[in-house]
Amino acid sequence: MPGGATTFDQGCSRGGHISAEPRINDRIRVPEVRLVGPNGEQVGIVRIEDALRLAQESDLDLVEVAPMARPPVCKLMDYGKFKYESAMKAREDRKKQVNTVIKEMKLRPKIDPHDYETKKGHVVRFLNAGDKVKITIMFRGREQSRPELGYRLLQRLAGDVADIGTIESAPKQDGRNMIMVLGPTRKKADVRAEREAEKRKNPAVEAEVVPAEVVPAEVVPAEVPEAAVVAVVAVPEPETVE
Description:
single chain; elongated; 4-stranded mixed sheet; alpha/beta; 6 helices
């Protein structure tokens, strides 16, 4: 049977690091335990010697699963397999975790229509990706005496993206700025799941093909057939767009 981990009481007595792993096999130093079988069946209270003998006969480990119980609860299991499966489950759980990302978009209260549409497009893209967006209205000079301009602009933007985002933090003054936070109506986990499903349907490498006329002439030698040239452009998304 595999060896046991450092015990709780050993770590305490030495004044060192206390192991989070349970005590197993001969590391369990109590006169009797409440034994649970490998399939979850209740065996009852038995002497530690008998529990260890049963573990050895079954080619399993005796693992202390409830050390604070009286007597401690121990289970017969393959501890190596248990640790491996636990590690794999933790890994899968970490993959499923979604980190909250807050993008930021900065606007001026007297923004022109073209710039507004451009920045609104960025907000739409962020929300569709499942990210939150912090909208900052920057006031300068005399604009600080007209906070209603910033408030109206924020309300207008919130209305324009109401089908894909909601106001999570209402507009509020923050020094010379006015801030509002928009949240996506769809969860990022759902967006990620859809993307994974789309990748499975289309296993081809997702790359942006630049039209031939956009590729600089010096990059494409004359002797190379035009059909054989594919340029992939990777443009990082900025966290803050001004």
